[in-house]
C-alpha cells in the first residue's frame, strides 16, 4: 500500500490488540485506531473517570509506545 494506513481494533480482544498493532506496524501500518480494545472493559463500571485514567490510559500508552518503537526501527 503506497499510502498511510492504520489497523482498526474492530472488537479484537484487548489482550490481543497490542500484538496485532505490532504485526500491522511490521507490515507497514502508520498506527492504530482503537475503541473497544481500549475502553470496553470499563464500560458500566462505577467511577468511569477513575477507570479511564487507571485502566484505559495505560492501554493507550502501551499502544503508542509500540507505534513509537516500530516507527523508530524504520528510520
Report on the architecture of this protein.
Strand 1, helix 1 and strand 2 form a beta-alpha-beta unit. The longest helix has 27 residues. It is elongated, with a radius of gyration of 13 Å. Helix 1 packs parallel to helix 3. The protein has one domain. It contains three helices and two strands. The two termini are 19 Å apart. It has 75 residues and is mainly alpha-helical. This is Sulfofructosephosphate aldolase. Keywords: Lyase. GO terms for molecular function: 6-deoxy-6-sulfofructose-1-phosphate aldolase activity.
Report the structural category.
Answer: mainly alpha
Strand content: 5-15%
Task: Calculate the mean pLDDT score and round it.
Answer: 94
Arrangement of strands in the largest sheet: 1-2
Helical content stands at 40-55%
Low-confidence stretches: none
What is the H/E string? Answer: EHEHH
Distance between the termini: 19 Å
Number of strands: 2
Dominant shape: elongated
Rg, alpha carbons:
13 Å
Describe the biggest sheet? 2 strands, parallel
How many domains? The number is 1
Amino acid at each position: 500500500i503506497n499510502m498511510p494506513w492504520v489497523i482498526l481494533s474492530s472488537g479484537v480482544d484487548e489482550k490481543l490488540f497490542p500484538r496485532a498493532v505490532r504485526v500491522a506496524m511490521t507490515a507497514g501500518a502508520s498506527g492504530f485506531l482503537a475503541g473497544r480494545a481500549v475502553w470496553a472493559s470499563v464500560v458500566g463500571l462505577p467511577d468511569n473517570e477513575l477507570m479511564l485514567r487507571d485502566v484505559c490510559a495505560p492501554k493507550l500508552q502501551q499502544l503508542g509506545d509500540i507505534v513509537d518503537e516500530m516507527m523508530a526501527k524504520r528510520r
